[in-house]
Amino acid sequence: MTTAAVHSFHIPVMGLAFTIDSPIKVAHFGISSVISIVEDRLIEMMRSHYYKQQGKAYLPIGTKEPDYRAKRITDYLNLVNKMVQEQFEKLKSSAFEAGAEIVQYFEMLPEESKLKQLYYQLGKTADPALKENLEQQLRSQMQPGSIDVNIMTKVDRDVVNKQGEPIADGSDAVTALRGYANSTLNHSSIIFSAGMNPRLYNYLEQCNEFYQNADGSFNKRIVIKVSDYRSALIQGKYLAKKGIWVSEFRIESGLNCGGHAFASEGFLMGPVLEEFKTKRQELMDALYEIYVPALQRKNMAFPANPPAISISAQGGIGTYEEDKLLRQYYGLQSTGWGTPFLLVPEATTVDEHTMQLLCNAKAKDVVLSKNSPLGVRFYYLKGTSSDIEKQRRIDAGKPGSPCTEKHLAFNTEFTKEPICTASQKYQRLKIAQLQSLNLPAATYKRQEQEVLDKECLCVSLCNAAPISYEHPFLKTQTAVSICPGPNIENFSKTVSLKTMVDHIYGRANVVTNPQRPHLFIAELNLYIQFMKNEMEQDRLNNQMEQRKKYYHNFIQNLQAGIQYYKSIEAKINGSNFAEALEKVKNKLKEVTEGSL
Fold first, then answer.
1. Which of 253, 257, 449, 469 is the most exposed place for a label (fewest CB within 10 A)?
2. Strand partners of residue 334
3. Across the strands, what pairs with 9?
4. CA distance 520 to 75
């Protein structure tokens, strides 16, 4: 069976480059992190960088090689796995001396950890025999952090052959999945985000690596990011029918997160967590009821009881008290700390210029933009080199970006072959169309701005790694975008890995905004502001009448969330929570009064 993780938090995937090598930096300390495996050119660059750093021969995997994308991903994950295992074995066998990495490993553990208590016993004993025995016990119970990967299910472009026909099992997400499945990673997880992709989920059935072992363990686990219980039930059942078990549902705030923001109809994190808490056994039983017959149809052994399902959450967590509430009251197995780790150079990969912008970021600098070509709202830090470069192209009368990667090329409005809405080709065609429509000036300006906002994310979310490691990615494109969550305004300085871990476990405090609201209040405010902006947009477009039902449900869900928070406010540390909740309630009333 899989051993429980030694830490109660994980580092979620961030962008494309920011956690591309986080396991190499933190896994030997027992910390789990997540790699994005979308961008294979970046992965090939990282292969080149780390093979050379290790003094080993780097053999390129060229684009003319069959299934090159999956092969690049497999080899990079194998390389990362090998490096982590070597680092971990070296750390594990080192002497317990002041300043040694093995000492740092144990010092970073949470105070309630049994392993940490054993470590404290070691520090108190002077008996050589007992000391040696304790050291052996400690070493035997150490384990590295999990090397996990992420696939954003919406990024699943068809890849075609020379005849223009889609290659069977050759789409972006499916090849990434195959690359992971073929890797040597064990007791690892693949995290699916952005909703259900039937083609991708159907391919899972072909991969033996995701089926349960005879001892009840999984070599490769399935984790699904969800925003509510219903989504977990639907996706879990879909996979259970194929004999695939979901080992973890990872709840992510719809708006209090980084990167793409999948805003729900006002479903707040607290009530969603409560539903998972009360229905966890019901969820397991419902999936098990479908899972067993599916395995029987395949003539496969099935477990006598439902396999475990972990529940984790991420999005806007910023203090020890919040983390403790999520783990103890809601019974979460892990919490995800993303945005704060962007300020930890020992854990993530951020170039110096962008790091300085992050340190100086205020609330006004992080916007919920329409910059993503996917058409999904996207948190965006203003003033980045990519932001500046985009404006220069617009000012020069040449908007849009060169489209080299094509992972987000889905639009067929003007062309037979899908193109990206951030590309120069699309923006030229779309603006020409808008100019031909003789729209009112204000309407034209608004629609033109939505076109110009779109930005190439395939490259700009990769460039932090090539810049940091002085390794070319695309010579003519070096601009960087970054997508922190709103929580970045509460952290304004770089810190060490140990300091950030100490902050998570309540041994230090690195929050630099004394007015920081509780994560539940912050999310509420974000949802109210989001709804207000949506209403303003709909009024401009004369769509309020058509969207009445949407806003009615949205407001009801927010009001229900506020009532829920009032019912648990005694469990939330912080004397100003009740007062802040009342202010939010009044703010909601102001926004909605007379709106519908």
1. 449
2. 312
3. 335
4. 41
Amino acid letter for position 353: H
| Longest pairwise C-alpha distance within the chain | 88
Rounded to whole angstroms, the Cα distance separating 283 from 285 reads 5
> How far apart are alpha carbons 36 and 51 in whole angstroms?
19
Residue 39: name the closest of 408, 410, 484 by CA.
Answer: 408
To the nearest 10°, report the CA torsion of 570, 574, 579, 582: -60
For the chain, what is the domain count?
1
Distances (CA, A) of 237 to 72, 230, 292: 32, 11, 12
Is residue 510 within 8 A of residue 308, CB to CB? The reply is no
Task: Encode pLDDT of 37-87 as tens digits.
Answer: 999 999 999 999 999 999 999 999 999 999 999 999 999 999 999 999 999
Q: Are strands 366-369 and 378-381 parallel, antiparallel or unpaired?
A: antiparallel
Contact predicate 222/244, CB 8 Å: yes
For residue 469, give every residue at least 6 positions away whose Cβ sits within 8 Å of its Cβ, in sequence order, or none. Answer: 49
Q: Which domain holds residue 587?
A: 517-596
Helix (H, G, I), strand (E, B) or coil at 32: strand
* Structural domain contains residue 536: yes
In a domain, 540, yes or no: yes
CB 249 within 8 A of CB 277: no
Q: For residue range 350-382, list pLDDT tens digits in order.
A: 999 999 999 999 999 999 999 999 999 999 999
Reported as type and span, the H/E element at residue 170 is none
The rounded distance, in Å, linking the Cα atoms of 21 and 596 is 49
Dihedral, 354, 359, 362, 363 alpha carbons, nearest 10: 70
Which distant-in-sequence residues (6+ apart) come within 8 Å of 160 by Cβ? 166, 167
C-alpha 127/C-alpha 135 separation (Å) is 12
- 592 within domain boundaries: yes
Task: Identify the bridge partners of residue 281 per DSSP, sorted by sequence position.
Answer: none
**Helical ranges in 471-545 per DSSP H:** 497-504, 519-540
Q: Which residues contact 387 (CB under 8 A, 6 or more apart)?
A: 380, 381, 481
Q: Is 266 left (phi over 0), alpha (psi -120 to 50) or beta?
A: left
As a whole number of angstroms, the distance between CA 474 and CA 119 comes to 48
Do 420 and 172 form a contact (C-beta atoms < 8 A)? no
CA within 13 Å, CB half, 235: 28
* Residues across the chain: 596
Neighbours of 75 (CB within 10 A): 19
Does residue 490 sit within a domain? Answer: no
* Residues contacting 542, CB < 8 A, separation 6+: none
